[in-house]
Amino acid sequence: MTKYFLGTALIIALGAVSPLVQAQSPTIDVAPGFCTNGQIVVVDGQTECRIEDSLEALIHDFEEAQLKRDPVTAGELGDADALKRLPDVSLAAERKSQIENKEFLSRHAQLSTRPMSEEERLNYDLLGFALKQKQRLAPFDEARLPFTNDSGFFNNVLYLARQTRFEKISDYEAYASRLTELPRYFLQHKNNMRRGMESEFTAAAEIMPGILETVENLASQPVTEHPLYQPFTRYPDSISAEDQARLKELGEAAIKSSVLPAYKNLAEFLAEDYIPKARQTSGIGDSEEARNYYRALVRYFTTLDMTPDEIHQKGLAEVTRIRSKMDSIIEEVGFDGDFSEFIAELRSNPKFYAKSERELLMTASYIAKKLDGKMPEYFGTLPRLSYGVMPVPKEIAPTYTTGRYWGGSPEQGRAGNYVVNTYNLKQRPLYNLPALTAHEAVPGHHQQIAIAQENEDVPRFRQSLYPNAFGEGWGLYSEKLAGEMGIYETPYELFGQLTYEMWRACRLVVDTGLHWKGWSREQAEACFLENSALAAHNVKTEVDRYISWPGQALAYKIGELKILELRQRAKNALGVEFDIRRFHDAVLEDGGVPLNLLEKKIDRWIGEEIQRVESDR
Fold first, then answer.
1. In what order do the strands lie in the sheet with 387-391?
2. Averaged over 35-60, what is the pLDDT?
């Protein structure tokens, strides 16, 4: 990994200086012979060394600021003290972060005319994207609503127990210290939520029963069975029995004194204070603030300059196109009935469903290995990091989505995981599993995220940069690519892929419908129930997600359509010389990028490919 650092701390100058170096040019008293990284100047008879800002310095300071705000990541990267802490999510900390972001944006703008190599310019553009994304949503104080229907501060901490490495006594001690931070961490979130209650910026009441049930469950678990206690149940052989006994007592004390009280207090707050004031509409509303917020979310999640109405119309067009293909498959299998009757058959026929959790996981694992075997035909670069298949943890499964990818860590030696929801098997059809696997595992999120993580020639922030339209667009593109790879073995599995594509097309219609056009839940659910084979439980869970997370659902289809557009552009330009492996590598090799930068990248790549082909002739 390339390291970015300065031997001397960069000081932001606040005095009046020339426009060229304003706010970026600290001065340091130094003998003339030692000014090696700046320009010697004389001010009031005093020799000084003026050090101008640089992209390298800005990236270093940005990454350091990120780590200071994120002790979880800092701990993963080796900061022993950070392993003891949870983030500071107070209003004061957020205001400080916004001030830092403005300073970084100012420094970034001052560097715009500096000569840069192609790689430096990409670093510059991506840093600017990250800074502007934060600035875009800063006016809306999103900390007031720190959860969605299935994820938030109350269950994200559970990942710490699974993703922290426990090798030394100090690892367990640090983890126990981190657990004692839970009451403070939850209190800060509650204070932010109270601010939301006062300003009528709250979650929808209809998603709150599932949230409360999850929190109450985590508040009532027996100490030694609590998910956050689990690290204290297993130890490496290098830790003595005596030390193991002491660490178990330490873990039990942390759960009793901090974890359970924090969850019980949170459950009481949700039931008595928050839920009675939760918003009564499915969408975020039609106030001026809500309209401006949704416009900002559309730009944030799509990374394109599109209006909600444009996206709604694009979604309707995609629904019509995909529905035609689905009708063709119904005709192909010779089903004697209309679309709704075919969907009813898919939702009710036992042959389409696993009989056990093990069968569902084994089928998912088989599909994943089939995809693994096809990857070298479609990609020149494959990640070193492997991935596994695991069930969604039981404590969060009832309100969790059908499947998801949990990223690994090459530095920590932790594999990625394709996570499959085995809760309520009658709602988990097998014909959808190939598309789900392609999206979450390979060629989808594991391929895309692991490639970015393993790119050692870029700044650290780029290894985890995740523009939603790029990341989720790639996942949806991968579902379609799986068809080219020969993964869909039956018309029903192909129908499952189209169902998943329809699902994402309906997202464009439903998200804009809920949050821009004032739709009800019933209107939102109708798009899925009438046009896809998604099970009723999945439809409810998904609509809960869109209600609680406005804008994010737009990323998938918008990103997929852009990748398909760029692929067709490359094929048109290169003809028989088009190489699918080289195209896919070009899309993924830079890690996550906004769609406008991806388009510029592929246009350059097309030109380079034309030159390469001509030189080979």
1. 387-391, 416-420, 403-406
2. 69
10 Å Cβ neighbour count for 401? 19
Q: What percent of the chain lies above the pLDDT cut of 70?
A: 92
Could you tell me which residues come within 8 angstroms of residue 327 by beta carbon, excluding any fewer than 6 positions away?
Answer: 339
Number of H helices and E strands in the chain, helices first, is 25, 6
Element (H, E) at 342: helix 339-348
Q: Are strands 416-420 and 387-391 parallel, antiparallel or unpaired?
A: parallel
Which pair of structure tokens corresponds to residue 189?
């979130």
Give the mean model confidence (pLDDT) for residues 164-190.
97
pLDDT per residue over 360-404, tens digit each? 999 999 999 999 999 999 999 999 999 999 999 998 898 888 999
- What length is written for the chain? 617
Identify the pLDDT of residue 43. 60
**403-406/416-420 β-pairing:** antiparallel
pLDDT at 10 over 50: no
- What confidence tens digit (pLDDT) does each residue in 495-548 have? 999 999 999 999 999 999 999 999 999 999 999 999 988 888 889 989 999 999
Show the tokens assigned to 182.
């839970």
Residue 191, helix vs strand vs coil? helix
pLDDT in tens, 203-252: 999 999 999 999 999 999 999 999 999 999 999 999 999 999 999 999 99
Q: How far is the CA of 427 from the CAs of 354, 496, 516, 543, 553, in angstroms?
A: 10, 14, 30, 15, 21
Give the helix/strand (H/E) hosting 537.
helix 536-548
303-361 confidence digits (pLDDT tens): 999 999 999 999 999 999 999 999 999 999 999 999 999 999 999 999 999 999 999 99
> What DSSP letter does each residue of 226-263 carry, written as one string?
SGGGGGGG---TTS-HHHHHHHHHHHHHHIIIIIHHHH
Residue among 322, 101, 94 at smallest CA distance from 192:
94
Tokens of 275: 């839920």
Asked if 85 contacts 178 with a C-beta cutoff of 8 angstroms, the reply is yes
- Find out whether 274 and 287 touch, Cβ atoms under 8 Å: no
Distance CA 309, CA 295 (A): 10
Total-model pTM: 0.89
The rounded distance, in Å, linking the Cα atoms of 422 and 427 is 9
Q: Which amino acid belongs to residue 96?
A: K
Integer Cα distance of 36 and 50 in angstroms: 10
The owner of tokens 């494959």 is 382
Strands, sheet with 39-43, edge to edge from the N-terminal-most edge strand: 27-29, 46-50, 39-43
Contact assessment for residue 476 and residue 439, using Cβ atoms and an 8 Å cutoff: yes
| Span 580-587, average pLDDT | 98
Residue 12 CB: number of other CB atoms within 10 A? Answer: 13
Distance, CA of 208 to CA of 204 (rounded, Å): 7
Q: Which of 94, 210, 580 is nearest to 378 (CA)?
A: 580
How far is 397 from 537, CA to CA, in rounded Å? 12
Q: Phi and psi of 508, rounded to 5°?
A: -60, -40
